[in-house]
Amino acid sequence: xxxxxxxxxxxxxxxxxxxxxxxxxxxxxxxxxxxxxxxxxxxxxxxxxxxxxxxxxxxxxxxxxxxxxxxxxxxxxxxxxxxxxxxxxxxxxxxxxxxxxxxxxxxxxxxxxxxxxxxxxxxxxxxxxxxxxxxxxxxxxxxxxxxxxxxxxxxxxxxxxxxxxxxxxxxxxxxxxxxxxxxxxxxxxxxxxxxxxxxxxxxxxxxxxxxxxxxxxxxxxxxxxxxxxxxxxxxxxxxxxxx
Length: 243
What we know:
Elements: H1 6-16, H2 19-27, H3 42-48, H4 52-60, H5 75-82, H6 85-93, H7 108-115, H8 118-126, H9 141-148, H10 151-159, H11 165-176, H12 180-192, E1 198-205, E2 208-216, E3 222-229, H13 232-241
Antiparallel strand pairs: 1-2, 2-3
Helix pairs in contact: 1-2, 2-4, 3-4, 3-5, 4-6, 5-6, 5-7, 6-8, 7-8, 7-9, 8-10, 9-10, 9-11, 11-13
InterPro entries: Ankyrin_rpt, Ankyrin_rpt-contain_sf
Keywords: ANK repeat, Repeat
Protein name: Ankyrin repeat domain-containing protein
C-alpha cells in the first residue's frame, strides 16, 4: 500500500497499538471495514494482536464483528485461539455469534479448548456457545478438553452441562498411560518430518504443568512447536465424581 493510502495508516496504527491514531483515522473517514493487500481486516488484526481498545473502537465505528477476514478467519476465533479474553468479551458484547464458524469448521470454543484457555471458554459458554457442538473432527467439546489435559476447561464445560462424559473419561485415562513429551514430538515429526532437533520446556500453571516441544532449524532457532497440559489425572477424578 502507498504511504499516502489512509487504510495503510490504519493497519500501521493497529500494529503499533496506537489507539489515538486509530481514532483520528476513523474520524477522517477511513472505513472500520478496511482490508490490507492480503484481504486481512483491521478488526481481525486487532483481535489476534490482543488490542481490546482498538477492537472496541473499530466495532463502535461499524466494523461487523463476524465478518471473516480473507474469507476464512473469524475475529472471535482468532482472539480465542490466542487466549485474548478481553477481546473475546468485546466482540461478544458487540454481537459476535458465540458459535460463529470459520474455515474448516472451527468455532471459537473449539480453539479455546484446544489451547486450554479456560477464561475464554467460560466467556463463550456464558454468552451461549453450545457446550456440545462437535469440533471439526467430530469430537465433543468435553473430549477435546480432556485430550488437552485442561482441568479448568473441563470444569467450565461441566458447569454448562456438557455431555459425552464417558468418552471424555476414556480419553483422560488414555493419556495417563502416555508420555506427553514423546507424543508431542511424534506429532510434530508427522507434520514437519523426522530428524529435527528439539527442545522441551515445562511451564507451571494453575492446573499443573504445560509441556511445550519446539523443533529447531539448522541454526538452532525454533520453527514449529506444540504444547499440552498434563492435568489428565485431575480430569479423570472430576469426571468420575460428576453426577
